[in-house]
Amino acid sequence: MATPHYRLQCFLKRAQMLLLCLGIAYLMAGSILLLQRSSVRVAQANLAGLPPLLALAAPPTVLRSWLGPGVRARSRWAVAAAVQPASGGGTKAGRQWPASESLGVQHLHRQWFHNLLPESPEQRVPLQRSSKHKGTYMGCYLHNGSDRALGGTMLYDLRKMTSSLCQDTCSESGYQFAGLEFGAECHCGNRISSTRAPEEDCGLVCRGERGSPCGGVGRLSIYKVEGQLPGHRKFRNVHYRGCFKLTESTIRTFPIDSFQPNLTSQSCIETCTDKELPLAVFRKPHCFCTWTPSLFSLNQQSDNQQCVQDTGLNHTGNSTAMAPTEHAHFQVYHTPVLDSMCKERMFLPQRSSSLVALSSFPGAGNTWVRHLIELVTGYYTGSFYFDGTLYNRGFKGEKDYWKSGRSVCVKTHESGQKEIEIFDSSILLIRNPYRSLVAEFNRKCAGHLGHATDAQWKSKEWPEFVSSYAPWWASHALSWLKFGRRLLVVHYEELQRALLPQLRVITAFLNATITEERLLCAQSNQDGHFKRSGAFSFDPFTPDMRRMIDPLIRSVDQALHSRNFSGLPQEYLPR
Fold first, then answer.
1. Which residues, 6 or more positions from 180, have their beta carbon under 8 angstroms from its beta carbon?
2. Quick one: angle between helices 461-483 and 543-562, nearest 10?
3. Tens of pLDDT along 521-558?
4. Phi and psi of 411, rounded to 5°?
5. 230 CB neighbour count, 10 Å cutoff
6. How far apart are CA 187 and CA 152, in angstroms?
């Protein structure tokens, strides 16, 4: 008995030593991790008063940014367990990114992104600004939770942000000032609402260029965009709302009243855009600006001829302008300024047990439709994939687990039976294959908003791409028609032609309650920042390519009819 007892004692002693060594190793690892975390510091001294953070927040997912624009992440199965919820269910999205109540957490989130990106050889720039850059540099300004220098729209591009990109975006959206923060964020506005900061606070470089200030932490490097002559400014997302009959008492409630003898609709839109108001109410020579969309209900429009007649009666060729009568007709335009309500987005307040797919072939406009759905419902859409570029541009559902039930629908390009049958219902988005192939080739070569070069179109990559992707266009639609449950088919071209009726159909399918104000949000900002500029100047499809694609179009059209759906639009069908 003594020998076994002795052996047991020796074993226990060795186990104690092993546990002691493991404990020491654990403490050393913790100390190293603490030192690493302590190195992630906000460089500016005036942030020392922020509340202490006991743990480093989980970084936003940036897997997509590592893949590059030519590679699409195929699945989220392998990485779903690592995803952290973006925010609590029902939490509204604000302008700060990532959404956080603590400014310190916001800065650490940003620091995570920049630490994960490849190091730039030049982390800070000299204060002297090169004269080759466009616009007029205004200086460095405070931009934090209490002092917002610019209050308009914003976008992110952690890989390619430049001062020119930011200025062009703000100019097209109708803003006069463009501000860059933290080397990757672009803010727009028509007035600077905070105080100056020391220039050394704005020493970070833009990720897409060197030699010009690109802000700092809580600091904006602000530029005044290159001005154009009045009446010649080109805006994105300007839409005619219609002709409306208004009373004089209603008109008096509008915050801006501008009298201009030579007034045009363009100059009225410019006036209201500069005032950062979303609606321009025009009746020559009067221009009113307001933010009250409920006054202009879609079912209360008058005949446009009434506005033409009233304008002729109210303003003759002489210089005498009559005041508006008790009842008069006005032309109403949406300016590029987005109403504050349209910016409010949130995850579903209660997790849904039903998964809804937003399925499409790549290049069919899935991102655009997600943008419209988020505008009209106010809820985030999710994704089967990780796409850092889309997350940076405001699609917060990109980093949320796709089966969480917190998104109103989930983007997918999958077409296997197993992947299709996971979803309880599906929206199948179909676009003309010729246009889809061109759009996807552009995305693979130059990202979501770029264009392939002439050399790429003429290379062997293009015919190889068509030969492999064209059959996928057909098989994708055929698979969803065969295996999809509770299916809604939406044609991209029909959505373009009849935006609001189609959006009503989509939101009814999603069981989402919508208001007319939300519909108007979608109408007034239907393009967003996700539409490629410029028209396609040549036909890249050879006769052999067309002989391959045309039969695929016929097969999908026949499958739609066999399932009692309307067939493909006539413009698809070969003639």
1. 161, 163, 166, 186, 187, 206, 213, 214, 215, 220, 221, 223
2. 10
3. 787 777 766 666 655 667 899 999 999 999 999 999 99
4. -70, 140
5. 11
6. 7
